[in-house]
Fold this sequence. Notes:
Number of helices: 10
Order of helices and strands: EHEHEHHHEHEHEEHEHEH
Shape: globular
Helix content: 25-40%
GO molecular function, one term: UDP-glucosyltransferase activity
Number of strands: 9
InterPro entries: UDP-glycosyltransf_plant
Amino acid sequence: MSDAVILYPSSGRGHVVPMVELGKLISKHHPSISITIIILTLPSETTSTNSYIATVSAAAPSINFIRLPKVSLHPLLVRDIVASSFEIPQLNNRNLHQAILTLSSSSNVKALVIDYFCNSAVQVSSCLNIPTYYFCAASASALCHLLYCPTIHKNIAESLKDLDILVDAPGTPSIPSKDLPLVMLDRSHRVYQYFINTANQMAKSSGIIVNTFESLEPRAIKAILEGKCTPDESFLPPIYCIGPIVSTSESKEEHECLIWLDSQPSRSVVFLCFGRMGFFSST
């Protein structure tokens, strides 16, 4: 049987695209390995994700896609995007288990690569004795903060929403507590515990793949490798910096934003990226 690697991204194009690019990279360097990407089905499907998968399937036939069936989600969770991002994979564990068993009948599954929203999949991979790797499509600095969450939880008894302090995650600049993600400010929020559990599980995984490179974030990567971000400097799995991996357009026409940027004086532009869910407050 041929060797296979299974990639399991969270729902949403912002998670699927980086995982697909990771699959392309693995396939490029190890063409003998079969790549299968397992896709979660959202309560309300988006045409952009479906069309993207169709495009990739046509352009990269070496990458296979398996779509899990839709699961029922509580109406309140449907409106909570972050909570549902954790809940949907958890509700799909039985479907994931069956999908991996089916793949294992014809392939030697060497690894399962998940993003942090799919942390519940560890229950499945552990049961099947499959090594599990986490893929962090964000920066190493973001990974520092995620891995440091259990330490904050242990050392600070109150919710950060009730405090006005600086949070000093190793490898990163100090950040005012109020500027951290909202779900990390309230210890009673269900998503807060999801992130704590994920950070603890990442430290026990077979490895963490990060979409960055060492010369870009030397301080953050050094802190992670030295174990400064994990509770009590506990054991940390291997860290693989494989970035940057980005999805590029095949069009040779230069985007108007790049044309504008090239016309600006050197070192005169500050780039801010808030992610697909970022926003400015009204005040």
